[in-house]
Design goal:
The complex is a heterodimer of chains A (349) and B (343). Chain A is α/β, with parallel strands linked by helices. Chain A has two domains: 254 residues, Rossmann fold; 71 residues, no CATH class. Helix content of chain A is 30%, strand content 24%. In chain A, the strands form two sheets. In chain A, strands 6-7-8-3-9-10-12-11 form an eight-stranded mixed beta sheet, sandwiched between helices. Chain A has a four-stranded antiparallel beta sheet with strand order 2-1-4-5. In chain A, α3 packs parallel to α5 and α4 crosses α5. Chain A starts with 12 loop residues before the first strand and ends with a helix. Chain B is α/β, with parallel strands linked by helices. In chain B, the strands form two sheets. An eight-stranded mixed beta sheet of chain B has the order 6-7-8-3-9-10-12-11, with helices on both faces. Chain B has a four-stranded antiparallel beta sheet with strand order 2-1-4-5. In chain B, β7, α8 and β8 form a beta-alpha-beta unit. In chain B, α4 crosses α5, α5 crosses α7 and α7 runs parallel beside α8. Chain B is globular. The N terminus of chain B is likely disordered. Classes of the chains: A alpha/beta (349), B alpha/beta (343). At the A-B interface, α6, α7, α8 and α9 of A face α8, α9, α10 and α11 of B.
């Protein structure tokens, strides 16, 4: 990633990824030999700043969830680095830590999951669910102190104290997601990774949960990595966006830069495919991509997008194109992006 | 390429394809009765794309399944109502009579195509069998027709792909196969229940365009599109039926619905969508407070009264009727005036 100095340098990074790779080996044949790798994350460099909301978008199989899990230490990292700037000021290389060594930092990094039905233990009451991270990470807290904190958290996310003794099945999807958020907030984290936090919810409930997350982020100064496939939602919440395709970043920029000037051919197609709730909107220039996303086990050589790219060139097969800065803070991994229109016209002739 | 523009509904009185009257479908669970569909009336005109929208549990899918008599009984039961299709009441047909209609006259595609395809038979076998069963075509003719349909929905190398099994296809490809199967018998009505919900946005755009294209090729064919996604409705439908709590709350042309939603529920739904394309820095999304009422215990009066920002005493006591408020526009709300000037 290029070393663009950030204006008004009070901005501190909270987490920095350098050439991160997460490959899952695939075994097969009689002797269960290693036959291939699923390259879920395939060389990602990214810097997340303290207090910002970074939206990570991409379609299924692009590696966005694996990216979140890698930061959480939930999947083994193949290579590369994840540097976390801890509250104490030290810079920790998360990929070098064992599970036990990771534990002190886990209270600073928490996760909110997509499915509020399977991510809460059905045998625990709401109080026990929210209390659990406190028991693990804040051993010095007394029972009474924890009880007060749990009540505080439930109130914070819009649940009533009386509901603490109930069990997850007694709640609706939106309320369960609130419980998941309360649990994530229990240890006073600085970074929250939200993996599709609203995609299992109904539209009217989605808006409630999005507002809650934004409010919490503002009030508590949280940094939020918001992973989602719904680009309209990400556009609403994110300050900056990272667009992924088949394990690689293809474009990073502020939300305005991405929407005003989408530059990677994939970003262009992705944004143009978003349906908008306006029947009178003139649909001009929707880019229809051919075919499907290839399997991450069988990525095309070079640029992963070239098999569907409307302006693919022979040289795209040679190497994974590096991210290049086209504007301050706006980076694109396509050497041909500035000649998009011309190449498209040439192709149509 | 731009998505196919919505075909203008023909002026004058449109030809009726299906007329649903007073449909009631309920489910009995542990001695309790859930009135999932609780008195639904609407028409589907020939040649239109009708959207049936609402959130989970509103009764939209149960309505569609009732039309095809696909409600598992027990626990489900179609209590009463009629669905007149080409002069016959679908709900009073016998199992065998319904089998002839299903697939041939009315086809259905689902959210997850894998559940509708049989994993142990090849795609080609399943397609050809359906065609042979319904048309009495020879094996050779049926294979030819299958290949032709697969090519139409954009599956390359169709003849070879006929030998593939469903798991060898991606989600988008399976949905293409489902569309090819559904349309191979040129049904008059295609019911699509959340056909693109499980798909990525670039694939969703392909599938919706394909559905509209295929409909255009077949004179007078209609689509009933069931979805929770208002953006998909805006882009594909001619008319919209909005359901909440087992009842229809609003019926309108797609333009009327998005420009002048009348029911407080429809208004709330539209306002709760993130619209950064209109207003970049919306601080907060508007929300509909509370949650969907319990299906075993609908509120008295208006179904939406527990969450409605405009609720009055009358709304909790007396159930509003679905009333006409303008040309092709109906609303179930006490607080909306009848708009006489519009008719």
């Amino acid at each position: 990633m290029s070393e663009t100095p950030v204006v008004g340098t009070t901005v501190q990074p909270i987490i920095e990824l350098q050439d991160l790779k997460v490959w899952f080996p695939v075994h097969g044949g009689v002797f269960a030999r290693h036959i291939a790798d699923v390259k879920a994350v395939d060389g990602i460099s990214l810097r997340v700043e303290e207090g910002e909301t970074l939206g990570v978008v991409g379609e299924s199989g692009c590696g966005k969830s694996t990216l979140g899990k890698a930061v959480m230490g939930l999947v083994p990292v193949t290579s590369g680095s994840i540097q976390f700037h801890s509250v104490s000021g030290e810079v920790v290389e998360l990929t070098k830590l064992s599970r036990r060594e990771y534990r002190p930092y886990r209270s600073e990094i928490q996760m909110v999951y997509q499915d509020p039905y399977s991510s809460l233990n059905p045998r625990l009451s709401v109080e026990e669910i929210v209390d659990e991270p406190l028991r693990v990470h804040h051993r010095s807290m007394s029972r009474e102190q924890r009880r007060i904190r749990v009540d505080e958290l439930l109130e914070r996310v819009g649940l009533r104290k009386e509901q603490a003794e109930r069990y997850p099945h007694e709640f609706s999807g939106g309320q369960r997601q609130r419980i998941g958020i309360a649990r994530a907030l229990a240890t006073r984290p600085r970074l929250i990774i939200a993996d599709e936090p609203v995609s299992a919810l109904d539209v009217s409930i989605q808006a409630q949960v999005i507002n809650l997350m934004q409010e919490l982020q503002r009030d508590l100064g949280l940094t939020l990595i918001f992973i989602a496939h719904d680009i309209s939602v990400v556009q609403h919440v994110a300050d900056r966006m990272a667009v992924m395709y088949l394990g690689n970043l293809v474009e990073v920029g502020t939300t305005e830069q991405i929407f005003d000037n989408p530059s990677h051919p994939y970003t262009r197609a992705l944004l143009s495919a978003i349906p908008r709730p306006d029947p009178e909107l003139e649909r001009v220039g929707r880019i229809m991509l051919e075919g499907d996303v290839p399997s991450p086990m069988d990525k095309p050589s070079g640029c992963g997008f070239r098999s569907r790219c409307p302006i693919a060139q022979p040289s795209c097969a040679e190497q994974i194109p590096p991210m290049e800065s086209i504007d301050e803070g706006h980076e694109v991994a396509c050497p041909y992006q500035d000649r998009y229109q011309q190449l498209l016209e040439d192709r149509q002739k | 390429m731009a998505m196919e523009p919505k075909s203008n509904p023909p002026s004058g009185s449109p030809e009726l394809l299906l007329q649903i009257k007073d449909l009631h479908t309920s489910f009995s669970v542990d001695g309790q009765t859930a009135r999932a569909v609780d008195g639904v009336d609407f028409d589907i005109h020939a040649g239109e794309v009708l959207g049936l929208v609402g959130e989970s549990g509103c009764g939209k899918s149960v309505t569609a399944l009732s039309l095809l008599k696909l409600i598992p009984d027990p626990p489900g039961r179609i209590e009463k109502g009629s669905a007149i299709f080409k002069g016959r009441d679908l709900l009073s047909l016998t199992y065998d009579e319904m089998r002839v209609i299903r697939g041939r006259e009315i086809a259905m595609i689902f959210q997850e195509p894998m559940t509708a395809l049989n994993p142990v038979f090849t795609i080609g076998f399943q397609m050809r069998e359906a065609i042979q069963h319904h048309t009495g075509a020879s094996k050779k003719e049926a294979i030819g027709r299958s290949v032709e349909m697969l090519e139409k929905v954009g599956i390359s190398d169709a003849r070879a792909r006929m030998l593939a099994y469903p798991h060898q296809f991606s989600g988008g490809m399976r949905q293409r196969v489902m569309i090819a199967m559904a349309l191979s018998l040129e049904p008059a009505l295609l019911i699509a229940d959340e056909p693109t919900t499980a798909l990525d946005v670039t694939i969703q755009a392909q599938i919706l365009e394909l559905m509209l294209e295929m409909k255009e090729q077949q004179q007078g064919a209609s689509i009933l599109l069931i979805t929770h996604d208002l953006a998909v409705v805006a882009e594909t439908c001619d008319r919209v039926v909005v359901m909440y709590g087992g009842k229809i709350q609003e019926v309108a042309s797609v333009r009327q619905l998005f420009r002048q939603p009348k029911h407080p529920y429809t208004q709330g739904l539209l306002r709760s969508l993130p619209r950064p394309d209109l207003d970049r820095k919306q601080e907060q999304l508007e929300t509909i407070p509370g949650m969907v009422p319990n299906i075993f215990d609908w509120p008295k009066g208006c179904r939406f009264c527990t969450r409605c920002p405009l609720v009055e005493e009358r709304c909790r006591r007396e159930e509003p009727l679905l009333r006409r408020v303008g040309q092709g526009h109906e609303v179930r709300c006490h607080l909306v005036d009848e708009d006489g000037g519009d008719s």
